[in-house]
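One-letter codes give the sequence; the fold follows as tokens. Both lines appear below.
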Amino acid sequence: MLPELKIAQLRHFVWVAELKGFHVAAEKAHRTQPAISLSIRDLEKKLGEGLFEKRNAKTAKTELTPFGSHFLPKAKELIAHHDRVAEDMTLLAEHKTGHLRLASVPSIASRVLPELLLQFFADTPGLHVSFFDDNSTAVLQMVENQQVDFGIAHLFHEQEHSDKTFIPIWQDQIGVVCPNNHPLAGSTELHWQTLREHRFISNGTSALLEDSEAHPLLGHSQFYVSNMISLIAMLEAGFGITTLPWYAFPKHSTTLKFIPLKTPMVIRRIGIVHLTNKSLTPPARALIDFIVASSSG
């Protein structure tokens, strides 16, 4: 049966060996000399061999036995491994190391997260991050497949996601996006029926209209564009109009106009989504708490 070696005993052994005495080792360990002697005797009993020669009254130095000399580097290796594991776990618990995986809808990824992540990761240089951005459906799929620790998305039908925990953080209104020179650009608010007179381009966020009176617009649309960069390019070229949540509207655009959709008024709620029955890693929990605290403040 293998001996159960205690890290404290190994430390005592190394200190006695390196400092050449039980008294100085006791001072370093903040223990009494008898306590260190007892610790070493127990370690020797477990190993089945003596570690130190009998005390030399002339030199008053503690010398290792051949077995002790052979065991010394092994003891140091065990202590170093223990300390590395303990440090890694401490850093992981303090979200200062490890691997964090998250996914977000592009609007929040580009408009909100950069500043939040800059603050959060300022003191965590050892934490590695994999970050994905995609539409809500894809983000939720990544959460379900456990490809990410958590996602930031909109739940279209919350009752269908009983296996997930949803923490609402942000909300924005749906509006109409068109070029600055479009006939609708001078409006301050719009009714959905007005949009039927113009070429409507649907996109990934258009599903927000499905449960509203504006749902006929989706059937009216001849074009669907999933990529936001391509969608913006088509809008800027004057190809048509679309609807977007406010956060998805290009923040610094000088060529496009955002006009709130008044009838119906559709509000999108975005939040953090994670699996209810799966524990979060310490870094993931820490980042969620940080986002929640930052948003509520």
Summary: The chain has a mean pLDDT of 91. Strands lie at 97-104, 126-133, 150-153, 164-179, 190-191, 201-202, 223-224, 242-245, 256-263, 267-275. The longest strand covers residues 164-179.
